[in-house]
Design brief:
The chain is an alpha+beta fold. The protein has five helices and four strands, in the order H-H-H-H-H-E-E-E-E. Strand 3 (108-113) and strand 4 form a beta hairpin. The protein is globular. It starts with a helix and ends with a strand.
């Protein structure tokens, strides 16, 4: 099911407003029939500056230090070298957000970034 989801999202361009990394992960959760991420995590911003401001306010609202901490309040965290297909993953990024989140398929991690699905 993860492969079909990735294929369906492959050509969709990144958008701060509608197709950011959290919306990408949330869409997969919905695709799998699970509860999506809270809307206030994935909506309410439309450019890098408003995303940063929104991110900081949302972290404060939920009492979290970063997105990894926030995801950890909703999902079981596991440090592993071999995550299963469909696992939500996070990696540090050099940009102002500090992290990017994505999904595992086979032996790769897929992230929705300003350059598209990578």
């Amino acid at each position: 099911m993860i492969y079909q989801y990735l294929t369906s999202r492959q050509k969709e361009p990144f958008s701060w407003e509608k197709n950011n990394c959290l919306a990408f992960v949330s869409g997969y959760l919905e695709h799998m029939g699970q509860e999506p991420l809270p809307e206030d995590w994935i909506k309410g911003y439309n450019d890098p500056r408003s995303a940063w401001v929104h991110y900081q306010k949302t972290l404060k609202k939920y009492g979290c230090r970063d997105i990894v901490d926030a995801l950890g309040t909703r999902f079981h965290q596991e440090l592993t070298l071999h995550p299963q297909d469909g696992t939500i993953v996070a990696k540090r990024s050099e940009d102002f957000m500090g992290h990017i989140v994505g999904l595992v398929c086979s032996d790769r991690c897929f992230f929705m970034s300003p350059e598209g699905l990578k």
